[in-house]
Amino acid sequence: MKTIKPENRYRIIWEVFILAVTIAVFIEIPLSVVFNNSSAGKLLLIEFLISFIYIIDIVVHLNTALVIKMDVITDRHRIASIYLKMVLA
Question: How far apart, in whole angstroms, are the C-alpha atoms of residue 15 and residue 9?
């Protein structure tokens, strides 16, 4: 399986989707805490879905080529190493 090009249209759409999910989470969490939302079953399903989306996002990032100083990196092991350094730094 080839790596995803950084300029791929579907990857860009995915990034916009992840941004929308993140904004929704930043709005939903404070509201559910302040108003003590009692629909726990519905919230549990939504939280599971959001966690699953973020796991898929990690997989997408690990399979997306990186451009560093005009050099395109397509080796998955190197991509994972750079990704982990960025996340843990």
Answer: 10
Q: Are the C-beta atoms of residues 12 and 64 closer than 8 Å to each other?
A: no
Contact (Cβ atoms closer than 8 angstroms) between residue 79 and residue 44: no
pLDDT tens for each residue of 66-77: 999 999 999 999
Total Cβ atoms within 10 A of residue 28: 15
What's the length of the chain? 89
What SS3 string covers the chain? CCCECCCCHHHHHHHHHHHHHHHHHHHHHHHHHHCCCCCHHHHHHHHHHHHHHHHHHHHHHHCECEEECCEEECCHHHHHHHHHHHHHC
The tokens of 8 are what? 């791929």
**Residue ranges of the domains in the chain?**
9-88
Determine the Cα–Cα distance for residues 17 and 53; give it in Å rounded to an integer. Answer: 10
Q: What is the pLDDT of residues 4-15, one digit of tens each?
A: 998 999 999 999
